[in-house]
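stage 2 :: seqdesign
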């Protein structure tokens, strides 16, 4: 059964539609992905190339001689990863999906750069953005509610 999901960048300039029926989610911890996303890992969903339709084309950064990374040059959102010689699959960042729920990682890649302390954070205190007075005050000053 086909499952279509949509996504794009934060400002909305770059959009995509993808059938995620044969998708595989994973975390990549390699240093290139850490630097490209600014995080301890990059969370990706790998999809068949023919399942992905860019409704508006992303910009691309040649991050190495073997790969490029789609992104939005207007807002800076990293949108994925693409091996230049891989004609069959593309990787999209989990955070760029409009609804990233439902994806479950199947593995860790680039484990040589994995930061163990960031893997299991289940014991840390949790605080919602709309429960943080300094954040809600800033949004309220702009006449807006805290976004999800």
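stage 2 :: out
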């Amino acid at each position: 059964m086909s499952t279509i999901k949509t996504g794009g960048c934060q400002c909305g300039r770059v959009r995509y539609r993808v059938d995620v029926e044969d998708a595989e989610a994973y975390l990549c911890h390699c240093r290139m992905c850490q630097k490209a996303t600014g995080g301890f890992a990059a969370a990706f969903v790998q999809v068949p190339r023919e399942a992905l339709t860019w409704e508006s084309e992303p910009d691309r950064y040649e991050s190495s001689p073997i790969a490029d990374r789609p992104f939005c040059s207007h807002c800076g959102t990293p949108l994925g990863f693409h091996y230049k010689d891989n004609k069959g699959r593309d990787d999209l960042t989990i955070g760029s999906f409009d609804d990233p729920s439902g994806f479950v990682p199947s593995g860790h890649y680039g484990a040589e750069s994995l930061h163990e302390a960031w893997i299991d954070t289940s014991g840390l205190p949790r605080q919602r953005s709309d429960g943080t007075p300094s954040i809600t005050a800033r949004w309220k000053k702009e006449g807006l509610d805290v976004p999800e």
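stage 3 :: structure notes
- The longest strand covers residues 42-48.
- The chain has one domain: 4-119.
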